[in-house]
Amino acid sequence: MLKGSFKIQERMHDMAQSKKGLTTSAGAPVSDNQNSLTVGPRGPLVLQDVALIEKLAHQNRERVPERTVHAKGSGAFGTLTINGDISKYTRAKFLQPGTKTDLLIRFSTVAGERGAADAERDVRGFALKFYTEEGNFDLVGNNTPVFFVRDPYKFPDFIHTQKRDPRTNLRSPTAMWDFWSLSPESCHQVTILFSDRGLPASYRHMHGFGSHTYSLINSKEDRHWVKFHFKTQQGIKNLTNDEGAELVGRTRESHQEDLYNSIEEKSFPKWRMYVQIMSEEQAKKTWYNPFDLTKVWPHGEFPMIEVGTMELNRNPTNYFAEIEQAAFNPNNMVPGVSWSPDKMLQSRTFAYADAHRYRIGTHYEMLPVNKPKVEVNHYHLDGAMRLDVPEYNHAYYEPNSFGGPAQQEQYREPPLKLDDATMDRFDHHQGNDDYRQAGDLFRLMDADKKRQLLDNIAEHMKRGNVPEEIVRRQIEVFMRCDPAYGSGLAERMGVKVYSDKYESGSAHH
Questions:
Q1: Does residue 384 belong to any structural domain of this protein?
Q2: Distance between CA 189 and CA 205 in Å, rounded?
Q3: Model-level pTM?
Q4: What is the pLDDT of residues 65-88, one digit of tens each?
C-alpha cells in the first residue's frame, strides 16, 4: 500500500474516534439517521418523526434567491497592505501608510445564472469588502473602468437585454444590439467588452476598477474626487472566442478552479492598488462630466498614484456562508472616503441594500461574513434574523435620556457646493460626447486587436441574427467613434456605408 494511503487511513481513524453526536437543530440527540419512523416495516410514515420532518423542511429552504446580476461568482479572503502615502488626501485609517487590512473579494460574471460557464464573454464583477477599524468599506466595481449606462433609470432596461427573452427563454443578441445602438453612451463599454479583454482567461489575470467616482476627505476637511484601480500582478491573459468555447466544453468552472487551486497551492494572487485624484476645481474644467460612469479620466491628466498591494491568501471554508451570503454594499463607507454626484453610484446605495434584504434577510449585516470588526450601535428593532440579543435599557429610540448611542458630529463631511442647484430630469445625452473615448481606445489598438474586436462583434451579430436595421444603426454609432471602426464592421456584415462624411473623433468638433 502506498505511504499516502496509510496517512489517509490514520486520519480517517482519528476522525472516527472524535465524531460528534448528531442532533436536531434544537440540540436533541438523533438516534437513527438512516431509517424513517414507520408503522411496521411496510407501514406509512408518522408525523412524529421530527428529525425526518426537520431534515426535509430544511432541504426545501437550502437555497436563497440568486443575485439578479452577478449570480455566478467566486471569492477569497486576503489583505490590503498600504505602502504608498495618500494621507494628504484622506483621513481614512485603513489608507494610511503601513496599515494592513483584512478583506474579502468576490469576482463574478454579470449576465449568466449561477449555473453559467465561467469562460463566457462578459463584464466581470470585482467587489471588495475591507474590514477596517472604522467599519466596513465596500468597493463594488468591475474589471472595466466604465459601464454601459450613466443614468440608473436605464439600468433595469439594460439588464433585461442581458437576460432571457420572456417569449423564447433565450438570450437575445437582437435585444442587446437594439439597446446599445439606441444608447450611444454604451459604445465605450461595448468596445471593451468585444475587445480581447472581454473574455479573461481567469479572475487572476484581469485588472479591477472601482469604476465610479468617489471622494476622499482629509483631516483639514478638503475634498478630492478619486478613482480606484487594481492592476493584476499575474499579467493580463485573455481568450479568443474559440479558446473560450473549447474551455467551456471541458469545464464550466474554469475561473473557480483557477482561483481556488492557486490559493491552495500558495501561489497567492496579487494586485497593486492605485488611485487617480482630481480636485474640485479641476472637475469644473474637464470636457467630460467626471461623475459620468461611461467616461474614464485620462491618465496623462490625472496620473496613477500607487497606494498598496492586495493579496488573496485564504479560500472560503464554506462557500454558501462566506461567498453566497456575502453582501457588498456601496452604503458601507468609512470616515475619509465618501460618495460623489455619480448618479449610478447614488442609485446603488439604495439598490444593493434593498437586494440583500430581499435575498438574504432583514439583518443580513449580522451574518459573520458581513459583520464589521468594530462595535455596532443603532436603533434598528426586531425583524427576521435578529441574531444578537440587544439590551436597550429603555434607550430604544433617539434622542433619549438613558445614555443610548448618540451621533458623532466629528465625522460630519464638509458641504458639497453645486453650481446649478436646479432639480429636474436632465437629458444625459446633452453636452456629452459619447464617441471620442471609444474612438481613442480603438485607435490605440494595433491591427491585430482591431481585427479581433471587429471579428468578435460581427460574429456575435451574425450568430444572433441581429436585424439589418439594428446593425446599420450600430455601424453609424461606431462611424462616429472612428470611420475605420464603423466601416470595418460594415465590411464584415456585408453592409455598404459612405464614410467620407466622418472624421476620426468628429463628433466633438
A1: no
A2: 19
A3: 0.88
A4: 999 999 999 999 999 999 999 999
